[in-house]
Design brief:
By secondary structure, the protein is mainly α. The N and C termini lie close together (6 Å). The chain has one domain. It is elongated and about 45 Å long. The longest helix has 23 residues, at 2-24. It is 85% helix and 0% strand.
Length: 66
């Protein structure tokens, strides 16, 4: 059961990270980068959350427990 949860977290984190990268390349993020030098908060939160979730899933898979 633990491996299934770890795999689900890893896949979900990668998907959320993908949404963040996609949001980073949006028109709103481009305008925000031009004005403030940073992407939108939404894009940043998606990338941070996706990375954290993916790392948690990978850590769960690396532990090796069933």
């Amino acid at each position: 059961m633990n491996k299934a949860l770890g795999l689900a977290l890893l896949v979900g984190g990668i998907i959320i990270l993908g949404y963040g990268v996609n949001a980073n390349h949006s028109l709103a993020s481009g305008v925000s980068k031009a004005i403030t030098g940073q992407p939108t908060d939404r894009a940043m939160w998606f990338m941070v959350a996706g990375g954290v979730i993916a790392v948690l899933g990978l850590g769960s898979l690396m532990r090796g427990r069933d």
